[in-house]
Amino acid sequence: MKKKELKSYFVKSADELNKTLSILQIDLAKTKLTIGVGREKNLKKAKLLRRRLAQIETILSLKKMSDRPEAESAGTKDK
Protein backbone atom coordinates (compact mmCIF):
# COMPACT_ATOMS: atom_id res chain seq x y z
CA MET A 1 0.00 0.00 0.00
CA LYS A 2 1.34 3.37 -0.91
CA LYS A 3 1.61 6.22 1.58
CA LYS A 4 -1.07 8.28 -0.14
CA GLU A 5 -3.48 5.37 0.03
CA LEU A 6 -2.64 4.80 3.69
CA LYS A 7 -3.24 8.47 4.50
CA SER A 8 -6.58 8.34 2.70
CA TYR A 9 -7.74 5.67 5.16
CA PHE A 10 -7.22 8.06 8.08
CA VAL A 11 -9.76 10.44 6.52
CA LYS A 12 -12.46 7.80 6.05
CA SER A 13 -15.09 7.07 8.69
CA ALA A 14 -15.18 3.89 10.74
CA ASP A 15 -18.14 2.55 8.76
CA GLU A 16 -16.29 2.96 5.47
CA LEU A 17 -13.23 1.26 6.94
CA ASN A 18 -15.32 -1.67 8.18
CA LYS A 19 -16.83 -2.04 4.72
CA THR A 20 -13.37 -1.99 3.13
CA LEU A 21 -12.19 -4.49 5.72
CA SER A 22 -14.95 -6.96 4.89
CA ILE A 23 -14.26 -6.66 1.15
CA LEU A 24 -10.56 -7.31 1.69
CA GLN A 25 -11.31 -10.35 3.87
CA ILE A 26 -13.39 -11.84 1.06
CA ASP A 27 -10.59 -11.09 -1.42
CA LEU A 28 -8.09 -12.77 0.90
CA ALA A 29 -10.19 -15.93 1.09
CA LYS A 30 -10.54 -16.04 -2.71
CA THR A 31 -6.82 -15.43 -3.18
CA LYS A 32 -5.86 -18.21 -0.77
CA LEU A 33 -8.12 -20.57 -2.68
CA THR A 34 -6.67 -19.67 -6.08
CA ILE A 35 -3.11 -19.98 -4.74
CA GLY A 36 -3.93 -23.41 -3.33
CA VAL A 37 -5.42 -24.57 -6.61
CA GLY A 38 -2.45 -23.23 -8.54
CA ARG A 39 -4.20 -20.65 -10.70
CA GLU A 40 -2.66 -17.61 -9.02
CA LYS A 41 0.86 -16.82 -10.16
CA ASN A 42 1.48 -13.97 -7.70
CA LEU A 43 2.19 -15.86 -4.48
CA LYS A 44 2.81 -12.67 -2.49
CA LYS A 45 -0.73 -11.45 -3.07
CA ALA A 46 -2.13 -13.09 0.10
CA LYS A 47 0.72 -11.68 2.19
CA LEU A 48 0.07 -8.16 0.93
CA LEU A 49 -3.67 -8.49 1.56
CA ARG A 50 -3.01 -9.62 5.15
CA ARG A 51 -0.71 -6.63 5.62
CA ARG A 52 -3.33 -4.22 4.29
CA LEU A 53 -5.96 -5.79 6.58
CA ALA A 54 -3.68 -5.32 9.58
CA GLN A 55 -3.04 -1.68 8.66
CA ILE A 56 -6.74 -0.93 8.37
CA GLU A 57 -7.48 -2.69 11.67
CA THR A 58 -4.79 -0.59 13.32
CA ILE A 59 -6.31 2.60 11.94
CA LEU A 60 -9.73 1.51 13.23
CA SER A 61 -8.36 0.88 16.72
CA LEU A 62 -6.62 4.27 16.70
CA LYS A 63 -9.89 5.94 15.73
CA LYS A 64 -11.72 4.15 18.57
CA MET A 65 -9.07 5.24 21.06
CA SER A 66 -9.23 8.85 19.91
CA ASP A 67 -13.04 8.91 20.05
CA ARG A 68 -13.00 7.88 23.69
CA PRO A 69 -13.56 10.81 26.08
CA GLU A 70 -10.57 12.06 28.05
CA ALA A 71 -12.41 11.65 31.36
CA GLU A 72 -12.51 7.88 30.96
CA SER A 73 -8.83 7.58 30.16
CA ALA A 74 -7.88 9.98 32.99
CA GLY A 75 -9.98 7.98 35.46
CA THR A 76 -8.10 4.78 34.75
CA LYS A 77 -4.74 6.39 35.49
CA ASP A 78 -5.75 7.29 39.06
CA LYS A 79 -6.59 3.71 40.02
Instruction: Give the fraction of residues assigned to helices.
Output: over 70%
Query: Quick check: average pLDDT?
Result: 88
Strand content: under 5%
Poorly predicted segments: none
Distance between the termini: 41 Å
Number of strands: 0
InterPro entries: Ribosomal_uL29, Ribosomal_uL29_CS, Ribosomal_uL29_sf
GO molecular function, one term: structural constituent of ribosome
Family: Belongs to the universal ribosomal protein uL29 family.
Keywords: Ribonucleoprotein, Ribosomal protein
Characterize the structure shown.
α2 (14-37) packs antiparallel against α3. This protein is 82% helix and 0% strand. The N and C termini lie far apart (41 Å). It has helices at residues 3-11, 14-37, 45-67, 70-78. With 79 residues, it is mainly α.
List keywords for this structure.
single chain, 79 residues, mainly alpha
Write the layout of secondary structure elements.
Elements: H1 3-11, H2 14-37, H3 45-67, H4 70-78
Condensed summary:
It is built from four helices and no strands. The protein is mainly alpha-helical and 79 residues long.
